[in-house]
Amino acid sequence: xxxxxxxxxxxxxxxxxxxxxxxxxxxxxxxxxxxxxxxxxxxxxxxxxxxxxxxxxxxxxxxxxxxxxxxxxxxxxxxxxxxxxxxxxxxxxxxxxxxxxxxxxxxxxxxxxxxxxxxxxxxxxxxxxxxxxxxxxxxxxx
Length: 142
Known about the structure:
The protein is α+β, with helices and mostly antiparallel strands. It has one domain: Defensin A-like (2-Layer Sandwich), CATH 3.30.30. Helix content is about 30%, strand content about 20%. The chain has four helices and seven strands; from the N terminus they run H-E-E-H-H-E-E-H-E-E-E. It has helices at about 10-20, 50-55, 60-70, 90-105; strands spanning about 35-40, 45, 75, 85, 115-120, 125-130, 135-140. Strand 1 (about 35-40) and strand 2 form a beta hairpin. The protein starts with 9 loop residues before the first helix and ends with a strand.
């Protein structure tokens, strides 16, 4: 037996183990709203883009880059943080792409929590769950 645990019974060792584990965050249900899409001529504007990106804890530029690359379109962010896509895009298809982004780059594949962080380690993107602590590598789509 390793030094320091000699003489401890099973219950004491188990309690010692649990005391050294990182505390688990409470599993708060996050309500992710649908994207509010407005088509003006040949441009599509997402009015609540900044708010939605804050809720999912992702950089709006990263989310927009994923959406634009998936659609093969050009666009950017306006001064209010709204996404502007230089293409006519339906609300349904944009929300479907956004849901795919959430499944790939926000939701933890282990515990299905939406509380996560996306960080870059060199060339590798890592999804770290703040609920269970699991780390998963994800492929870059931008």
